[in-house]
Amino acid sequence: MTVFEGIRAEELEVFAPSKWSSHAFNRQRLELKLKLAALGKQFLEGPLKRLALENMLADERPSIFNGHRADHLAWFGFRTGSEKNLVESFQRTGVKTGTREPYQAELHIHFFAGLDKAGMSCGIRLARTARVDIENASKLAAETGFAESLAGIAESAGASAYIAQDSTSLSELPSSTIADALERLEKSQCDALFIGRMLDASSMEEMGEHLPDELSAVISSLLPAYQKLAWSRGNDKLGLVSKSKHRAVQAAARLQEGDEVRVLSGLASGRVGVVEQLLKRGQVAVRLGNLVMNFPAESLEVVSSRAKRKNT
What we know:
CATH architecture of the largest domain: 2-Layer Sandwich
CATH superfamily of the largest domain: Protein of unknown function DUF1054
CATH topology of the largest domain: BirA Bifunctional Protein, domain 2
Shape: globular
């Protein structure tokens, strides 16, 4: 087993403003990215194992996707599977994070580990682009004791609540204002709510090889807060489950066997096939060449209807 060698404070100099847009430092940033990946792997195989999360890493290179500013690195752990697809289908589009497009993970509440010039942060992050989670959490925040419960979980984890006014600055919040922070997020008046631990560069370096265990303990302690904040089928204040079923039925109603359709999402995105059979729960069997695959009706676009072809 490879021993985690720690992260030195001097390694964070690669995030100095004079180096943000330079490709000359891609190698150094890549080395830090690999360390973040190792931390993320420990989180996923340890405290987050039962959640079976998807994970991703921010790009270490300056590019159009990060506004040509490689001023930080981040690891994200976020929901996967059918709940991920359902949440993304209800997201608003066109919401940016600062000067860049949001990462896919930022459409969801997520576990987060980040590095920048000042040090390291680790915990739960809710960006203003995660509209479903924000709106669901805002409804929960109206319930008596919700914000106080979150504050208690954070305190027991040795964590604090922070609000990001923009993409670079974090301000610590009194725990009593978590509900206010959610309201500001709902109105897009700030960039993110973060509940976790902030380590300055020297504190991070002092932890050395013990950093993964220290941060895994933080992640484990914050699991109850994530489960309270995150939208799920069992935590659905927005009624998305019933809305999704209704939408699927409506989408299926516009299709009939023999229609020529284009697949709009997934591995078969862009391919054109023929509706073979209308199934239950808004699912549709589509023949793509010699292969028949099942798709949600809302992921199909009619190219040519069978009825129109009959009339011509």
